[in-house]
Every structure is written in structure tokens, then in C-alpha cells.
Amino acid sequence: MEEIKIERAKKEDWPYIQEKLKDYILDSTNASWKQFFVAKNKGKTAAFGRVKDHKKYFEIASLGVDCCCRGKGIGTKMLLFLTKEAKRQNPEKPIYGISHKPAFLKKAGFEEVANAPEALKDKKKRICKLDPANSRIMKLPS
What sign does the dihedral 11-47-100-22 (CA atoms) show? Predict the structure, then answer.
């Protein structure tokens, strides 16, 4: 795999992230470049994502991989980085994610849950329009 460096997003990363949030139909609610991390390969953005703090829990959100970089493990590396970042911020808080590709979140140990926070159930209805039949709310076990 290529050498991937994950770092906090910079202001100059924001136009790219905004474009991809729209293109990939990802959650842009209250999004700011300051919330994101980017994975770079040879200085070029390959993936991005953020940890949303909902006070009582974290959500791994808005994770996208550039089309030309998919299938190379970069998304998984970003997912693992973001879960580690959430744990670093507060190891006691639960970590959730919503995905129309639940097998992706399972790679990091996430499990499907029926009893999820109402805000995530609402988000699933509002935002997860790409493949609503397969969208799942998942939680990383403590």
C-alpha cells in the first residue's frame, strides 16, 4: 500500500472536502474544515472524515475516499484512525457510525445496534439516501 499520512485538515483542504461531501452524498451538517482529518498520498488528498462530538457519544461521520483511491485500504486506515482519535478524546464515550456499507464499519469492530440515539435514527432518515435499505447504525463495543 502507498505511504498514507493522516493529518488534521487545513483550510486549503476545505473546497475539496465540500465538493466530495456533496458528490458522495455525505453528512455536511454543521461541517467545518476544522473538524476533519485528511489522508494524503504524496501530498494529494485520498480520503477524509471527522469525529462528531454529540456530547453523550461520538459519531464517525462524513468519511469519504476519493474514487481513484478506493480498494487500497485507505478508507479502513482512516476509519481506524478516527476511532482511535475518538477514544483519545474520551475513552468512556460510545462511538457510533452510520453506513450503507456495514461491512466497512465491521472492519473496525463496529456492530449493528437496534437501540441507537434518536439523533442518529433521524440522521439515517434524513441523510442516508444513497442506499436506505442497507444503511445501518452501528456501534463500536466498549
Answer: positive
Residue type, 47: A
Contact between residue 123 and residue 98 where contact means Cβ atoms under 8 Å apart: yes
Q: Which domain holds residue 32?
A: 4-140
What's the number of domains the chain is made of?
1
Residues (pLDDT < 70) of the chain are 1-2, 128-132
Query: Do 48 and 81 contact (CB within 8 A), yes or no?
Result: no
Q: What is the reported pLDDT for 110? A: 97
Angle CA(107)–CA(90)–CA(123) in degrees, nearest 5? 60
The CATH number of whichever domain residue 11 belongs to comes to: 3.40.630.30
Give how far the C-alpha of residue 31 lies from the chain's centroid of Cα atoms, to the nearest Å: 12
> Please, which residues have CB within 8 angstroms of residue 95's CB and are 6 or more apart in sequence?
57, 58, 59, 60, 83, 86, 87, 139, 140
